[in-house]
Design a protein that fits this description.
The complex is a heterotrimer. Chain A is α+β, with helices and mostly antiparallel strands. Chain A is built from 6 helices and 5 strands, in the order ββαβββααααα. In chain C, the strands form 4 sheets. Chain C has a 5-stranded antiparallel β-sheet with strand order 4-5-10-6-7. The N and C termini of chain C lie far apart (47 Å). The chains are: A alpha+beta, B alpha+beta, C alpha+beta. At the A-B interface, helix 2, helix 3, helix 4 and helix 5 of A face helix 1 and helix 18 of B. Chain A: Pfam families: Fer2, Fer2_2.
């Protein structure tokens, strides 16, 4: 029995009629064609599907679209500035080669942004611990850790803070 | 001035912006008008007869378009998935090659074997209906362990493979080995298991089939490392579609690690079904489905012995291996435990005589094929574990016994006793760099410090060598490959000087779009952003053998160099014509074509423009256009090598092993992009550590069920499982036989790391009398090894 | 997932009414339920989402402890200054559940009502002398967990809040499954005056206390007091990752570590 789901996704209000069992990730990928959010597992382990719901990172494969009804959702497509300037975390991932095949990357970046927002100056241990919910098979995490450290520094810079306001 | 984006520069990847902004194009991202969704009905039993399939309830379910079975495929004369490599047994007989159909015909042979497919308007509807397909199974006894599969009473997986034996193969000089053992002062032995792994690229496999009745063309979009090979195998052997009517696209692919080399049944099913139902058909695996049906890796059980003289010099190596191939032969499966394994058993050592026997068996498990390293990690692990044991037997330091037996750089090129000829390498140099890098001399103090904290510390080496750039067609053919393994490239200069490169290599994380562009930027002095690398589409690229075996740069990159050579030759002719000079007087440097001794010169852009807008070319000797194609078939494999050193700390109370340091010193020949190369090493190391400490694919031999069927039970390495690494490379030993001098870096980390890690674990436990532990060294296994130690040792 | 209907009541009374529907299931954060549904291991007719019920939210100081609403997410408990100041071991336990994203969704009520044998919270409910308040009654923490995935809750009964008693000292030490990150063994140790509680999760079908450990720690609240003590492996879980006797061993090790961490 379809229900209407309305939420703000990357700043735009969207409304779709979906089956109740529709996952948030399916809503984003299939109904909104926002295919940057990926599905890498079916047991809530890999984190390729991480998005922000009302500012907190969640696994969109383990969230129903109806649970996000009325919420504000940010996906990887909504992270860069309107003019296309990469978010400092995105830029840091590129600078430090924190991605290879790119499949885990959207979830990894979204988790990293959430991590830094909660802990602006994370240590290597904090980063490794904080990325527990994201699996990458390519990079061995070495460069992801470097990228998140650099991304955190960049996010803390006055200009980035001003842009985030 | 060197090009800032040329060879040797850590150019930031050109492909990254699309991945970082969610604009990658992976197979599951594609949507087509009128597209349907396909879900498989898979066997819950490891071995059973399929006595009937009742699809009536499924067909009546909402949204269902079709239910198709093996019988439907048989009626349409769909063929068996072909195997690309043939091995002959000791007695000269060819390997057993049973049929491997995309949808089972009358019998299923592993949990996950596909029985039927349901196609519906939505994926949920297809899933709902798949449950309604009633399959009448008659269960048969099953076997999943290779050691049981070879016993007399084992269930038979295939009627045509008695004793479950696919082949019984050998390599080397048995008589020479036997003679050497008779003379040996010391013999080191080991029995070990190389644990089965699930590759687990983060993007699950997916395939989208389309058929256009207006022109009879099929398009398959698939998660593949080598679309041309899929087109060849599926078109010629399975579906009978000629190449000009079959386009295979491998768009952005989210990691492969070998598991996406092979032609899988699902690719044939969606392509065939698309025509049958007249609509596009998409299938995307759930992770659970990937666990059951992706080709797995490793799964060897081996016994090995090393004969030594009084001083610990290796005299001979004897190896006997049992390899589990799973229920069916995957595309490259037979080659992995033979020519990619036994040929590497010399390692970095001048062992004069080597003899290896390999029995490969069928079991009721998912097919086993190449997984990152593919045969070479198994060889490296066996040798490097055995060398550590040999050091103990001979009473030598583990670094010293290696040094004592290295093939010296002066002996290059070196013919091993197991078919390969190493072209270059300075193994002692790798060790010389590594020992101070890891402060080997300071290890004893670190161990004491750990002990003071109640921890056990160990250090382990792995001095590995591998054969990469999988290609030489003549060598591969002699070893049983049913096709040559060259690579193709086309370089197309456009009129305004931008360049499109078409390569048969495929990038699924390796960064070809950057590295290959660097080669072009360096050669012709064009801005790197004016170079586009196109890969993964059979309708655009002349041909390709794809990416596996660390071959892209060594073979694909060399093909690109050959094509650039041709472009340059032609550009020279055009320059000569434009500058009214003799061709022999044109000098070329950094993309400028100059008449020797003059200031008359042209850039490649000027030449490209003239090539497309000529007015007065001497047409009998100069055609318009600047677009050249080349195929490159190397003379030999390349031989990346190095020294990996791992240091671990073990908590004896819980058995938890922590990798506290890992250093890699590698010889990859010349390096084009250090940033990318180091990234490949990092990722490889973690897959090696994963095998050593965390990952294990376990089937229950009684029930035949996969016990590690999700990330809940199959332990993937996470960020907090590993440290940061120290990675060094040197470029003193370029490959001698390819134009770039490159060797390949994609698999080295995985090949070296598992042995280094386990050698460190065993070293840490040596105080307890432990001389070997099978991977993975899980906390319980380590804890048990400590509990089982002799009381006298444990008390120390 | 099979199809289901969905409701999001805004009062506990409405939630209780909705939960009466045949085969209805309550939805907390969904971090266990949704994976179960995705694997088609359950087929509820209706999901009753409790996220709109204001009465089930919030963390409050109460006499002798903390009252935590059932629909309080793990991350809220982990980051709550009140929890950190009052029962830091509880915040630390919550910070170790699952991963960051799971903690951002998963709820206390969902965790204890599900009673997964490898969940963390049950050990806190038992060790911290909790009482569980439902829509209709209070249940002592000691009586709440009755078996593997089984609780004292009646069909349709909804956990409203959990009241934890503030201990003098407490800590939780977990040995996690390296793959799933659930507890293979988790031991919560809490000291109340002369009384010590040791609650073990992960090791058996349901959380249990270890009287021998408690007695030893009541005599001497120090890790070495547990030397030579162990639980029987007889009724412990065994799986691919840990045999029963390894789990039994880990119970002692983790108990000692918890005592050390409690200080």
């Amino acid at each position: 029995m379809p229900c209407t789901v309305t939420m703000t996704v990357n700043g735009k209000t969207v409304s779709r009629e979906v089956e109740e069992r529709t996952l948030l990730v399916t809503f984003l990928r299939d109904h909104l064609s926002l295919t940057g959010t990926h599905v890498g597992c079916d047991t809530s382990q890999c984190g390729a599907c991480v998005v922000h719901v009302d500012g907190r990172s969640v696994k969109s494969c383990t969230t129903l679209a109806v649970q996000a009804n009325g919420a504000s959702v940010t996906t990887i497509e909504g992270l860069a500035a309107a003019d296309g300037t990469l978010h400092p975390m995105q830029a840091a991932f590129r600078e430090h080669h924190g991605l290879q095949c790119g499949f885990c990357t959207p979830g990894m970046v979204m988790s990293a942004v959430d991590l830094v927002r909660n802990n602006p100056t994370p240590t290597e241990h904090d980063i490794r611990d904080g990325l527990e919910g994201n699996i990458c098979r390519c990079t061995g995490y070495h460069n992801i850790v470097k990228a998140v450290q650099a991304g955190a520094e960049a996010m803390n810079s006055p200009s980035a803070k001003a842009a985030a306001e | 001035m060197a090009n800032p984006n040329g060879v040797g520069a850590s150019v930031r990847r050109l492909e990254d912006p699309r991945f970082l902004t969610g604009r990658g194009n992976y197979t599951d991202d594609f949507k087509r008008p009128n597209m349907t969704h396909l879900v498989h009905v898979r066997s819950p039993y490891p071995h059973a007869l399929v006595k009937g399939i009742d699809a009536s309830a499924a067909l009546a379910a909402p949204g269902v378009v079709a239910v198709l079975t093996g019988a439907d495929m048989e009626a349409d004369k769909v063929g068996s998935l072909p195997c690309g490599w043939q091995i002959h047994s000791k007695d000269g007989s060819p390997m057993k090659e049973p049929g491997h159909f995309p949808l089972a015909r009358g019998r299923v042979r592993y949990v996950g074997d596909a029985v039927a497919v349901v196609i519906a308007e939505t994926k949920d509807q297809a899933r709902d209906a798949a449950e309604l397909v009633v399959v009448d199974y008659e269960e048969l006894p099953a076997v999943t362990a290779s050691t049981r599969a070879v016993t007399a009473e084992a269930p038979q997986v295939h009627d045509e493979a008695p004793g479950n034996l696919c082949y019984d193969w050998h390599l080397g000089d048995k008589a020479a080995v036997d003679a050497a053992f008779a003379q040996a002062a010391h013999v080191a032995t080991i029995d070990l298991v190389n644990n089965r792994l699930v590759p687990n690229a983060m993007e699950p496999r997916a395939a989208l089939g389309e058929y256009d009745p207006s022109n009879g063309e099929y398009t398959l979009t698939t998660t593949s490392q080598n679309p041309h090979v899929i087109r060849l195998l599926m078109g010629a052997f399975v579906l009978g579609i000629p190449e000009h009517k079959l386009r295979v696209v491998a768009p952005d692919v989210g990691g492969g690690f070998g598991s996406k080399i092979f032609h899988y049944g699902e690719e044939a099913v969606v392509t065939w079904a698309a025509k049958k139902i007249g609509r596009p058909v998409k299938w995307t695996a759930d992770r659970s489905e990937s666990f059951l049906t992706d080709a797995h890796g490793r799964d060897h059980v081996s016994h090995a012995e090393m004969a030594m003289d009084q001083d610990g010099h290796f005299l001979a190596l004897r190896v006997s291996t049992l390899a589990n191939l799973g229920a069916y032969l995957s595309t490259f499966a037979p080659s992995i435990p033979t020519y990619l394994y036994a040929t590497l058993l010399a390692g970095q050592y001048k062992t004069p005589a080597i003899y290896a026997e390999v029995k490969a068996v069928f079991t009721n498990t998912a097919p086993v094929d190449a997984y990152r390293g593919a045969g070479r990690p198994e060889a490296c692990y066996l040798i490097e574990r055995l060398v550590d044991i040999a050091a103990g037997v001979a009473g030598l330091d583990r670094a010293e016994i290696r040094r004592r037996n290295f093939v010296p750089a002066s002996a290059m090129p070196y013919q091993t006793p197991v078919a390969l000829q190493y072209d270059s390498g300075d193994f002692a140099k790798n060790l010389d760099i590594a020992l101070p890098l890891v402060d080997y001399d300071g290890f004893a103090a670190r161990k004491a410090a750990s002990k003071a904290k109640g921890k056990l510390r160990g250090i382990g080496f792995s001095t590995y060598i591998e054969a990469c750039g999988i290609a030489p067609s003549n060598v591969a053919g002699a070893l049983g490959a049913r096709a040559g393994l060259y690579e193709c490239a086309e370089v197309r200069f456009h009129p305004t000087g931008s360049v499109t490169v078409f390569t048969g290599s495929h990038s699924h994380g390796q960064g070809h779009e950057t590295t290959f562009a660097q080669l072009v930027a360096e050669r012709f002095g064009v801005p790197i952003e004016n170079v586009e690398i196109v890969h993964g589409d059979t309708s655009k690229i002349p041909f390709g053998m794809g990416t596996y075996g660390s071959r892209s740069l060594a073979v694909g990159g060399s093909a690109l160099v050959k094509a650039m050579d041709k472009v340059e030759r032609k550009a020279k002719k055009i320059a000569a014509h434009m500058l009214e000079a003799a061709e022999t007087d044109i000098e070329v440097k950094d993309g400028r074509f100059t008449v020797a001794g003059t200031d008359k010169s042209l850039g490649i852009g000027d030449i490209a423009l003239q090539a497309y807008v000529p007015h007065n070319f001497p047409l009998d000797e100069l055609e318009p256009g600047l677009d050249e194609q080349a195929f490159y078939d190397p003379k030999n494999f390349t031989y990346p090598n190095g020294c990996h050193v791992c240091e671990v700390e073990i908590d004896p109370e819980t058995g938890v092993t922590q990798v506290v340091a890992f250093s890699a010193v590698d010889d990859f020949g010349n390096v084009i992009n250090p940033l990318i190369v180091e990234g490949q090493v990092h990722g490889g190391i973690v897959q090696g550590i994963g095998q050593a400490l965390l990952e294990n694919c376990v089937y229950d031999d009684e029930s035949g069920q996969l016990l590690t069927g999700s990330f809940m039970d199959y332990c993937m390495p996470r960020a907090d499982d590993v440290p940061s690494f120290t990675v060094r490379y040197h470029e003193d030993q370029p490959c001698t036989h390819n134009p770039l001098g490159v060797k390949g870096c994609g698999e080295a980390g995985t090949i070296g790391a598992s042995a280094a890690t386990m050698n460190a674990v065993v070293d840490a436990l040596s105080a307890f009398g432990v001389t070997h532990l099978d991977m993975p060294a899980t906390p319980e296994k380590v804890w048990r090894a400590i509990q089982n130690a002799t009381p006298a040792l444990a008390a120390e | 997932m099979y199809a289901f209907t969905y409701q999001r009541p805004s009062t506990l009374a409405d939630a209780v009414a909705a939960a009466q529907a045949e085969d209805a299931k309550l939805l907390g954060g969904g971090q266990t339920l949704l994976p179960t549904l995705k694997q088609r291991l359950a087929q509820p007719s209706a999901l009753v989402d409790l996220s709109g019920v204001a009465e089930m939210k919030g963390i409050n100081a109460v006499d002798g402890g903390l009252e935590v609403g059932a629909f309080t997410r793990h991350s809220e408990v982990a980051h709550s200054d009140l929890v950190k100041a009052t029962i830091p071991a509880l915040a630390s336990l919550a910070e170790g559940i699952g991963d960051r994203q799971v903690r951002n969704m998963g709820t206390l009520g969902g965790s204890i009502a599900n009673a997964d044998p490898s969940a963390d919270y049950p050990s806190a409910v038992v060790a911290l002398k909790a009482t569980v308040t439902t829509d209709r009654r209070t249940i002592a923490g000691d009586d709440f967990f009755t078996g593997m995935f089984e609780t004292a809750l009646e069909p349709g009964e909804i956990v409203k809040s959990v009241r934890f008693s503030t201990p003098d000292k407490a800590a939780y030490a977990k040995f996690r499954n390296p793959a799933s990150r659930y507890a293979i063994v988790g031991v919560f140790v809490a000291k109340y005056g002369a009384e010590v509680r040791v609650a073990v999760t992960g090791a058996a079908g349901s959380v249990f206390r270890v009287p021998a450990f408690e007695a030893a720690l009541e005599a001497n609240f120090a890790a070495e007091a547990l030397n030579g003590l162990s639980v029987s492996a007889d009724d412990l879980n065994a799986d691919l990752h840990a045999s029963a006797d390894y789990r039994a061993h880990l119970v002692t090790v983790m108990a000692k570590r918890a005592v050390e961490a409690a200080g």
